[in-house]
Every structure is written in structure tokens, then in C-alpha cells.
Design goal:
Layout: H1 7-18, H2 22-35, E1 39-40, E2 52-58, E3 61-67, E4 74-81, E5 86-97, E6 100-108, E7 121-129, E8 134-144, E9 172-175, H3 182-191, E10 198-207, E11 212-214, E12 220-223, H4 226-241, E13 248-255, H5 272-281, H6 285-293, E14 296-300, E15 303-304, E16 327-330, H7 340-353, E17 358-361, H8 372-380, E18 383-388, E19 390-391, E20 399-402, H9 405-418
Parallel strand pairs: 1-2, 4-13, 4-14, 14-18, 15-19, 16-17
Antiparallel strand pairs: 2-3, 3-13, 5-6, 6-9, 7-8, 7-10, 11-12, 12-20, 16-18
Helix pairs in contact: 2-4, 4-9, 7-9
InterPro entries: Peptidase_M18 (IPR001948), Peptidase_M18_dom2 (IPR023358)
Protein name: M18 family aminopeptidase
Enzyme class: hydrolase
């Protein structure tokens, strides 16, 4: 059931280009939502319950929703995340020696080290100013590089040697002796602010390669941050399109920090989403409890497509491929939140959307990752199903999916909101 109309994927490419970090993703999502008539709300303000679209942002996480007129008796939540594995700049970044200027970084999340070598990198993130204001910055040009050791000096390079995260993954950014404060002065100047007024920063290495189609018929799509901007973008598109959902409240919740365990005040293990849902229903616990019991959540994150060079790494009876539509992700040990009730929620949504779908299960001897699904489902006590697109090269600096699949995922999200 090919879509062939790839305007959604074209738009995803533009979203990825505008969103090198979680903070930029929230800003771009907000821009798109406001263009569709949504209104940003501060958590410290009183919130209206009038019909309309609204959103709020906390520390790189965004929650958006639509209210129709009348009572609201249930939520339909599409969950995702805004962060991605990369390298985070340390508080005092200037380092180096032997005539090289380097930037000290920490590994953020499950980075596939080798894919970041010999790649032109930019720097993006946020600066928090003396007065608490947040300034986004993206030095959108080649700035950093993690150089590979020449094969002449590393004859075992093709034998799977491990890189030391402390000593062998430090990017270079110039020549000369490092000077304390130089890098942050440069970043502040790029952002148009005084470095003395920068009281905090969250800065990350960002891959510069533009998203692109590939393959004989452009049936494949390659980009950084498919994990998990495909889901964030799909949720935004579906929420904007979900204009009539009756008494159900459609919600998009895309969290920061998923790649490092979700344990912050703004992440899936925190109270952010629960607080928002309470405010939409009101203070009465009975009304809120009944709404939660009638609600459903779809946790959307990427999953592993069958790798043609490593078919033995995949469960024989469950081999999803790009182009086949979203997957329902199943785990007996609940690393994915997908039991029988949850599978039925997925099937109803897919049927309403008219999209193809696939099933993903890990091999018994190769445990996979997990998602916000079990976390948010447990936190809220809400029926939750795990879904996602099949991709290759997950957590690489360049991931690959089917060109049609992002559009299928957005249709699935709309099916959840409206079925």
C-alpha cells in the first residue's frame, strides 16, 4: 500500500533541519502549532479550558492538546521524545594539547561511536542567561571533528577495536594552545549575547548532513535524529489535523531525556504529563480517575528493521522492513508496553487510519531497549501501547527508514486521536 505522496517526509526533513536539539525541536514544534492557531501556556499561569489548541514547554519537553466544547471524559495521548544520542559539551570545555584545540564532551545516551568519526559537526543547544532567559544557538556550519586514527597507525582498525570515550572521542576545533573560556565566548558571540551573562549551557555536537532520499526509486530516507523526531513530527501533524475528537482530548507528549533513562523533572518518569492532564480535567479526583480509566496512550519510538547483512540478529518470525508501515512492539517482559488490550488499541487505530502495519519482537537471547511506554503507562495508570517505525542504523549519526513510513506513522497517530 505505497503512499507515493511524500510531502509529509519532505516536511519531516525540514523539521529535522530546524531541530538539532531537544530545545530546538520544542521551538519548531511550537512555531508550527502556533501557525495552526495553538496558544502557548506558561505553567505558572492559570490555564483556560475554552475550546482551542494549547501547548506548554518544560526543559526540552513539549505537551500539546486540543479542547473541544463540552465535557471531556478521556485522553488519547501520542507519546514521543525529543532527544537523541550525541556528545554533550562539558561545563569547562576548552582542552587539548600538542598544538591542537579541542572541546571536552560527555557521551549522551547510547552513541554508536564509529559513526561520528571523521564527520563534520556543528554545535547547538541553549544558553541560560543571568536573568533566567533561554537563548537557543546553532552554529550551523562545520565546527568540530572527531578524527579517526589513520589505518597505518592502527592496523587493527577493521577488527572491531573499542574506542575509549574519555581519551579517543574528543573533538578538535582549531590549532594552537587552548584558552579557558574561549569556546563559550565564541558560542555566546554566535548567539549574540555577552558571555559574562551566560550562567548555564546545554550544548551538543550535531550532525550536519542534510536529510536525503536514496535508492533506485527514492524509497528510502536517510537523516540524523530519525530517532525520534519522526514520532514528534508525526504527533504534531496529527494533532493539527485532529479537529473533531468529541469528548476525547487528543494530546501530544514529547519528552526530553528518554535516551538517558527519563529520570528528570521534565521527562517521562517525572510528573509533567500527569500535572498537565490534571489541569485539563480539574481538581475532582473521581472525574480524573474515570477519565484515565477510559484513556489510551500510544508510545511511539523507532525500532530495528531487519538488517540484510545480519538476519541472524532478528527474531525469525518477526522481520519488519522499511515501507511496511508502523510496527507494534511486543515484549513479554514489558520492556515495551503491549499486551492484548494494547494490541487491540493499536489495531483499531491502524484500521481507522487505513495504514499497513508490522510486528516487532526481540530475539530471546538479544534483549532490546525500552521506551517511554512502560514508564508513562505505569506513572499514569493508563492503557499504553508501544509502536514505531522500522529503521536501520539506530543511534547512528545517520539513520535510515522507508520514505513512506513517516506519513504512515502520522496517519496512525490521527487514527488514535479520532477512532
Amino acid at each position: 500500500m505505497p503512499r507515493f505522496d511524500r510531502s509529509h517526509t519532505d516536511d519531516l526533513a525540514a523539521f529535522i533541519q530546524a531541530a538539532p536539539t531537544a530545545y530546538h525541536a520544542c521551538a519548531e514544534a511550537g512555531r508550527r502549532l502556533e501557525a495552526a492557531g495553538f496558544r502557548r501556556l506558561a505553567e505558572t499561569d492559570a490555564w483556560p479550558l475554552d475550546p482551542g489548541g494549547y501547548y506548554t514547554v518544560r526543559d526540552g519537553s513539549i505537551i500539546a492538546w486540543r479542547l473541544n466544547g463540552g465535557d471531556h471524559d478521556a485522553f488519547r495521548i501520542f507519546g514521543a521524545h525529543t532527544d537523541t544520542p550525541t556528545f554533550k559539551v562539558k561545563p569547562r570545555p576548552d582542552t587539548g594539547g600538542f598544538g591542537w584545540k579541542q572541546i571536552a564532551v560527555e557521551v549522551y545516551g547510547g552513541v554508536s561511536h564509529q559513526t561520528w568519526l571523521d564527520r563534520d559537526l556543528s554545535v547547538a543547544g541553549r544558553l541560560v542567561m543571568r536573568d533566567g532567559a533561554e537563548v537557543l544557538v546553532h552554529v550551523d556550519r562545520p565546527l568540530l571533528r572527531i578524527p579517526r586514527l589513520a589505518i597505518h597507525l592502527d592496523r587493527g582498525a577493521n577488527e572491531g577495536q573499542k574506542l575509549n570515550a574519555q581519551s579517543q572521542l574528543t573533538p578538535i576545533w582549531g590549532l594552537g594552545e587552548p584558552r579557558d573560556g574561549e569556546f563559550l565566548e565564541f558560542i555566546a558571540a554566535e548567539a549574540g549575547v555577552d558571555a559574562n551573562d551566560v550562567f548555564g549551557h546545554d550544548l551538543f555536537a550535531a550532525a550536519l548532513d542534510a536529510p536525503a532520499y536514496l535508492g533506485k526509486d527514492n524509497e528510502l530516507f536517510a537523516a540524523w535524529r530519525l530517532d525520534n523526531l519522526t514520532s514528534t513530527h508525526a504527533g504534531i501533524s496529527a494533532l493539527i489535523a485532529a479537529e473533531d475528537t468529541g469528548t476525547r482530548v487528543p494530546v501530544l507528549a514529547s519528552f526530553n531525556y528518554e535516551e538517558i533513562g527519563s529520570m528528570t523533572y521534565s521527562a517521562a518518569q517525572g510528573p509533567f504529563l500527569e500535572s498537565v492532564l490534571h489541569r485539563l480535567i480539574g481538581d475532582d479526583f473521581e472525574t480524573y480517575a474515570r477519565a484515565i480509566a477510559a484513556s489510551g496512550m500510544m508510545s511511539s519510538d523507532t525500532g530495528n528493521a531487519l538488517h540484510p547483512n545480519y538476519p541472524e540478529k532478528h527474531e525469525p518470525g518477526h522481520r519488519p522492513l522499511p515501507g511496511g508501515g508502523p510496527m507494534i512492539k511486543v515484549s513479554a517482559n514489558q520492556r515495551y508496553a503491549s499486551g492484548a488490550e494494547e494490541q487491540a488499541l493499536f489495531r483499531r487505530s491502524a484500521d481507522a487510519a487505513g495504514v499497513p502495519w508490522q510486528t516487532y519482537v526481540n530475539r530471546n537471547d538479544i534483549p532490546g531497549g525500552t521506551t517511554i511506554g512502560p514508564i508513562s503507562g505505569t506513572q499514569l495508570g493508563i492503557l499504553t501501547v508501544d509502536v514505531g517505525l522500522p529503521i536501520l542504523s539506530m543511534h547512528s549519526a545517520r539513520e535510515l527508514c522507508g520514505s513512506d513510513d513517516p506519513g504512515y506513522l502520522a496517519d496512525l497517530a490521527l487514527g488514535l486521536y479520532t477512532h
